[in-house]
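Replying to the earlier thread about multi-chain prediction with a worked example.

Input:
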Amino acid sequence: MVAAYKALFNLVVAFFLVLSLEGIGRKITARIQRRIGPPWYQNFIDLFKALSKHPFSNGWIFDFGVLMALGGTMATAMVIPMGSAFWTPFPNSDNFFVIMYLFAVGALGMAMGMVGSGNPWSSIGVSRALTQMLGYELPYLIVISSTIFHYKTASIHKLIEMQRGGWNLLVMPLGGIIAFVSLMGMLGKKPFDIATAPAEIASGPMTELSGKYMGLLHIMHVFAIFVEISLFVDIFLGGGNFGWYLVKFIVVWVLAVMISSVLPRFRIEQMIKFYWGVPLGLAFLNALFVLLGWTL
Amino acid sequence: MISLLIAIPLLLAFVSVMWKRLAKPLFFLAAVTNMTVLLASWFPNSVEIHVMGSWKPPFGINLVFDNASFYAALVVNFFFFLVSLMPNLVESYGVSLMLLMAAANGFVLTGDLFNSFVFMEIMTITAVTVASRRENFYNAFKYLILGGIAGSIYLLATIFAYTATGSLNMAHVSMATISASSLVAITTLYAIGLGVEAKLFPLNGWVSGVYGGNDLAPVILGTSVSFAALYMVGRLFGTVFHGSGAGVLYTLALITIIIGEVAALRQQNLLKAFAYSSVAQAGVVVAMISKGTSRAMGLAYFHLTNDAVAKFVIFLVAGFLVYNYKNLNGVFKKHKVLGASFSMATFSLVGFPLFAGFQSKLRIIMELFSMKDYLFPAVMLLATLIEVGYVVRWNVKLWFEEETDEKADNPIVAGTLALILSLLLVAVFIKPEIFLGGAMKMGNALADTKDYIHGVLSVVKGGM
Amino acid sequence: MALSTLLISLLVTSVVIYFISKVSWRAGAILNFLIGVFLISYVFALHIGVTSNLGTLFGQKLQLTWTHASYYFSAVSLLVIVSVMLFAIKWLDSQKYPAAFNMFILMMTAGSLGVFMAADLITLYIFWEIAVLSSMLIVPMGKKESRKAAVIYAVMSASGTYMYLYGAFLAFQRYGTLNISEIARHMVSDPSTGIKAAIFLLLASAGIAKSGIFPLHTWLRIAHGNAPDAFSAVLSGQLVKLGSYVLMITVAAIPSLRVFGNIPFYSGIPATNYFLIALGATSIIIGTLMAIKQDDMKMLIAFSSVANGGYILIGIGTMDPMGFEGGVLHVFNHAIAAAVIFMAFASVVYRTHTKKISELGGLIHKMPITFLAYLFAIISLAGIPPMSGFISKWMIYQALVRKGMFITAFIAFFGSIGSFLYVFRPLAGVFLGQLPKKYKDVKEVPPVMWIPMMTLVVISLVIGIWPFPVLQPIEGMRMDYGIAPTMRIADSSHWLIKGFSGSWNPVLVFNLFIIGFVIAYILYTMFPRPKKVDLLAPHKEEGAPINIYTGGEYIYTPELYHYNTKFYAGFERMYEKHPSWEKVLEMLAKFFHDLGEWVHGWFFRPSPSAYTFWVSLTILIVFWVRW
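Result:
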């Protein structure tokens, strides 16, 4: 039962933390671009506005896709350890690959629902999103595999414990950097916001979203960001107690936002070529170092 | 009694020259009599000879009747019998077929080298007349030329053998010590001389034209006559020359296998495709004979029997199709029984399980491995692979392609025969002893020179 | 009933079924289905270790034995075959040769079961050929291209089979036995690595050809793509698994780790196994990249079968306890998923008569059950929880990461993410989006056709939540083959699957999924109800209002407002000039044809005088050689 409370707490933290951070992110971007920007709570306002409006639905698969996206992502968010073994809701099932693939349920649900809207712009967006996944996941998975190989465990909370001696980012700096580059792609931040690309393909998957659908998918996005950054914090930054965990989370987020605010957007094949070039090569180099035992 | 096998068809052939209309029933009569004679003297299990005149061997001409020649004669006459059941196939070729039958029986039974040459010549010439059916003159002519050359080389070999040993009797020749250089000459010339009829590369140029030229020639030449020719290969190289020159045969046979299959693969004509396939199978048999042991030879003839039965069905069906349809696509939809028999026969040819070919092919490969021959099995499996390619292609084409409106009546006799024979192939898979027993006895008889010599030269029995 | 009696009576029954089907093909199909159901119950009732003699061939006893492996593979096969048999009861009315189909599918079942039961290499070969032959005769019953497909299938399969046969006899010649476990025992003590490796690779080639592993993978596209639609489900779901079985026999029943312990290549895996793993990895790359760009949905899944065959081979090839179980479990997962997918496609083709993704669209509202079957099947195929497909992929990853095989792991990850891409294409192009006008009267397929699909989907889901019934026989198999016999992976008392690096609880994951879904649903109902609008509504009259975003343009031909051609154009462009192995093999085929042409031209066409020349030349050469 404790596990259930912890899992629900995960969801609550994720919701408030990420939604506020999104607002802060908008503010930071604005400041970097010498604008004033909206207040930090702007995203709460946007979300509740969207949720309260009367929407249109494009058929049952559209509804089902949204539910699957949100449900799948929430399920993933519930397994995520927040920085330490104590804040790990399900210590027996926090296996990295389980989390990665559970996470895919949400992505698939969203893709299916949005294509179900019958709009080709959504389809193009989904096609881009899936292709992008092929780009960033590969270096990321190689880095994580070498981490797992190094620490002989794929359990996230055990990985955190193993990092008592020093953050993984410092043990294998190459891997940490590559993972962060991949994280940028996962978050869909510039230069990797190819899937949504508002000016090109009418926001891609979101083209047909109205009212509460927009809102629900926004919530899904919030949980997705929570999962992605938490994984990075846990695996590379050593987690830490709840406070430190939050600090690290915020730092990673702010860094990502700052980088993305000054960059333009890749084309889809440029993105693939980018990820399969230097990052993938370095990921393999990192794996080689791990195999040879050359870790710091 | 054995000389009846030659005498009856020969006699009836002369009779039918006078009464042309009787040729067909007389041919049937000859076939039935021969089968009866053979069935009456089931597997002699010893060497019996029948001397012509009262010249005791090694003088004079004698017929040798042992397990080997019995089994060969049985197979040869069996297919003549089957052909005689189909009057519309025989047409006006009754006389030729009877002469061919007499010659083939003589060729199988004779114990004399020169006499075998004579029978071979008769066989070639009558075969040429059979081959010229349906105005297939040019190919028949080619066959005639090649057969003539082969005959003269065969004769030359016989003369050499006579010079070297002073005898023409096979048993006597096999006893004699022949100097190495003459042995090389003799065996080489025999290999070439027999190579034409045994379809060895590169002497087999006539096969596709002759087998592909009409519907009667492949049915009888591809089964009976080629069995007779391959029997002689075993007799000469197994019994008489104790495996001398086997290396040449082996090499030529392996090349023959590959060449035959490759040529069959590209063939667009149904009859010719399987004509080439029979070239390849003859290669397998010759290569196996060249191994020289009794088991190997027995398996070779087991394989040859399976192949002959399958080929009979294939050529029978193919001949019917080629001469009744312009477009063969999907014809089996109209002739299900013919189609089923054809498919079963071709699958047996490939050696798929459930059919006779499987039994012989696998046994051959197993035997080769136990002899530590790793090349031949590889060649054989490669050949089988190519075989799979064209056999499946033809089956798919004949069964599944879109059919045209052409129509022909179902041939009842041919269909029944084809079905019975293809079921026989299944039966042989389940109980290989049906063919294997006889073939192994034949192999033993061919390999056992001592017994042969003893039988021919000491026992005198019968006589005309 | 003894095993041999069973198989022989099945073969005989298949012929009887033909004649029954000639009278009424539906009666034949129903009988087939009943026989299939009987076989399933028979298989579940059999005790491990039952043996039975089939007879003697060449002085060798032909034996059948019932092992954990036979049980597992037979059960998976029958599950697929029986579903297709049920499916066929209705589907066959769209086919030209229902009677022959009924006969051959039963014959093929007998052949496959025989392969799984065989205790020696020749029995295996016999039944193998029966299965190949009868399936090869079903393939050309499809559309025009299927004829060529049958030939290619036969030749490719035969090339593997005959190498296997050569290997079998090589083993027989060396060890004097054909019994698989005897050979395994002899091979452990045989000092000659070269011969052992030759036997190993020759035996494996049958599996390579059959399970569509590079370099003999090309037949899958053409055969699975063009075979009669429902039969593709058997081809991909069941027949390909014969290949996996043979691979498993060669790698595991012959304990490759001990046999080739003297040639370790990497991380304790022998070079021979690593060679197979490399082939499997190549297959994953080829299968995935090619699947992504197919427009023909059946060919797309055919290539996916190539990739999944690669997973199975990689998993088994590592001979790691996790990898082995993952590979073997993947057999089950892929069998079920591929069968459902192909049946769903068969349903679509049954109603629309096309298998081109670019000609379809929006079928979800017409065929919702088929859509759901497809959806769950691809979730399993892509390895996403809670379907069973995830478990096997997770196990294979565990093995790869534990062994530190990063390049292979990279390829496995690539194949897995690539599978998201390609399974989504038919989903988007066929079922979602705009419905072409000509399909506005399309109906869902009748229950006889969707019940088998949904049954398999439910089985896959249940196994995804509670995998232990399937994992138990796999563990039994692993014990039989002596791969880390002390290790337990499936811990059903704690509901855990244990890897080397942590465990997970499939029931918990499923519950989380349900909880997430429930919360999402609660949120969904809390907020204002949506107004249902149609899509572009092409089947409505012209001038009807447009309900989706079109950038302000009026769309006159709605089916063109549907993105289903070159779905991943951006990615496909990157490898459009790829080298084609299919072309290489075509060149090889052409070489044999040309060789035939050449031989014909030189030796078989010439005039009598040229023949005379050849005869004299032969005489001269032979004399020259022999003197």
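The CA atoms of residues 359 and 436 of chain C lie 8 Å apart.

Feel free to reuse this layout for your own posts.
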